[in-house]
Amino acid sequence: MRLASFKNSEKLKKQEFEARLPALRAELLELQNSLRQADFPVIVLFAGVDGAGKSEMVNLLNEWMDPRWLINRAYDRAMDENAEQERPVFRRYWHDLPPRGQIGLFLSAWYSQVLLGTVAQRVSEYQFPRHVERIRRFERTLAADGALILKFWMHLDKRGQRKQLRKLESNPATAWRVTHTDWAHWAMYDRFVVAGDQIIEATDVAHAPWRVIDGADHRYRSMTIAEHLLEAIKIRLNSRQPTSESRAYTPSPVNWLSSVDLKKSLSKKDYQRRRDRSQGDLNLLCRQAKYQKISSVLVFEGWDAAGKGGAIRRILRALDPRTYRVIPIAAPTDEEHAQHYLWRFWRHLPSSGNITFFDRSWYGRVLVERIEGFARPGEWQRAYHEINEFEQELAESGIMICKFWLHIDQDEQLRRFEERKTTPHKAWKLTEEDWRNREKWADYESAVNDMIQHTNTSHAPWTIVPANDKYTARIHVLETACEHLRNTIGGT
């Protein structure tokens, strides 16, 4: 149904509504209890014209269901405008996603910016496809992980919207809900309809379909949405989870690690000279980035005992501790495990002008989770594409991404393991898992080559660091970080 030809006509009599409501509420509560054991979240998004009952619908669902297992999120149009500019646009939505087994109700969410921007002509015809593609990526990523996405466009024709706004305005108890902005939007009703049609057409897909709801009669819209929600969750609970499918994965034809010269070395004197110079350069560059509000993400991956922590510490010595955070990544907590695997990384992205260091990262999906069987083949094969889109989102928001793989050979790793066993302040680093990983060296090497092959992009390139010599590795990391930051600052 196109919004341009929409006419309000649906009604539900009070007697029929009250007769159907008790059974509906009982079913909703029973279903909600069953959902708590499910391995997927439900994401319900309300959009549409002002006055069509979006907020009232969220309130009703909280009344009819158990609010302890509902997550309500609404995004005020003017709220946190500055904060919104500091981070990737979708960070706030990732942060607010419901965990598996719960329902999230979203108002004025990821469609508001493109809708209002298009109506106000802040989003041009050229920019519109980019906004839409960002939404499609977001919903596609969530749906591929099993999320049930339900989108309701609650609509009124122009006459019906004016009638509803006047009705609310005439009642002292509801007059506060009608603002000057609402009437300004009504004056631009035709623009809203055109923009709404464009958005619905571009984002109405099988894994995240739109349903247009007649918003004039409160009983009809409430019953229709609640019944649709009930039926959609029932179907998902009674069906098998969508099968994870790979995205044209092929093993890497290139052995990226074999070309690394691990014989490189530096004298202590040369190391100290280049370290001091690089740390001075890095301090100046980071202060310039802070001034220009350029954030940075530095990702450190590598073999166990390859020197990731040491390389990070040499960078930290050049920085103001108020401007950075180091995030060590281990096995996910229960809270993290209940979300999409990228969720915990979105939470730790840097604010404007600051830096986040990830000591291991989202690449665990295609490394340890792949090798140890924590991710099914379809999941880790699909992850290359998801990771590229995630990093593209960061780069488009102005974040500099610098990714390091610290490479050592097996003999050097064994030497460092033995050294750790006899060094009191390092012994804690050595675990049984480290020894087990050595037995799977060939599997991990293959996974690393695939990772580099499939995620080495222009906006987030990999730097393979020869790390048999620690001095060489640390200088390589410092100088590469300076180069990337210098290029980013120069390109703004």
TrEMBL record:
Residues 12-237, 266-486 form the Polyphosphate kinase-2-related domain. It holds the Pfam family PPK2. One of its GO terms (biological process) is polyphosphate metabolic process. The keyword Amino-acid biosynthesis does not apply. GO terms for molecular function: polyphosphate:AMP phosphotransferase activity. InterPro entries: P-loop_NTPase, PolyP_AMP_Tfrase, PPK2-related. The keyword Transferase applies. Keywords: Transferase. This is Polyphosphate:AMP phosphotransferase. It comes from Roseiconus nitratireducens.
